[in-house]
Predict the structure of Sugar ABC transporter permease.
Amino acid sequence: MAAAASRIFRKHWKGYAFLLPVFAVLATFKYIPFFQALIMSFYEWNGANVKTFIGLDNFVELFKDKTFYASLKNILIFTGSGVIIQLTVPLLAAVLVFHVKGKRLQNVFKLWFVIPLVIPSIVIYLTWQWIFAGDYGVLNELLERIGLESWTHAWLGESKTAIWSVIFVNFPWIGGITFLIYLAGLMGISSELFEVAKLDGMTVWQRFIHLELPLVRSQMKLVMVLTIIQQIQSFENILVLTNGGPGQSTMTPALYLYLQGFSYSKMGYASAIGLILFLFLLLLTWANNRFVKNTETID
């Protein structure tokens, strides 16, 4: 086995040589910081001159931290709602666009749904912050003009509405990479299958349930993984919109990590939070790969 691998390497060494810069960049900006954070999670470290080995004290403190538990509860809500949204709305939009008859009109729809990809996220978050603003926000102004003054809220400033307001950001949740993933999956389905479905007299709903949905299962699995990772890792939306408030109603582990590390200079504690998040993500990714079927494995 080793001899065969050696022959393959000698034969294709130029190709492997082109990968060296890639691995060098990954090692510099990904692997080395990760292992450094793993080591520093066992230290009381402020990122500069304080560096004292304390063993598992950071983890003991973390598992007693009520704010951390509140952030875990919030991230479960964010992740669950994100997965539900990304498995439904962009998929339905992709199916509708895929079946548009006119090629030119179909391309126009594709362009509209791709444009949000090139808009900086911070612009989107600031726009929604303006929409949800209490006294002068667009949403409250609209509600007042249509006679629903009693429905107005400080959407991002009240504990009961803040988390759902953050979830509502990016409504109608179509534009972006998820839409393109589903559309690519639909375009990979053989046209002969659609002809057979038409000859069998399938309705639009039957075609979606029995043909399109099973054949984009692999794309749905990919979207689930990407959504879980994105939801658990992201914090910039919460930082811009609510900064984790009011109270702890929108605090997430990633934002808590950021605040502990860069606001309170508790880099060792932040590293411990990061390690727990890594293990949590690893578990969820394994569960998704273990229990969610690909298109090829559907019975």
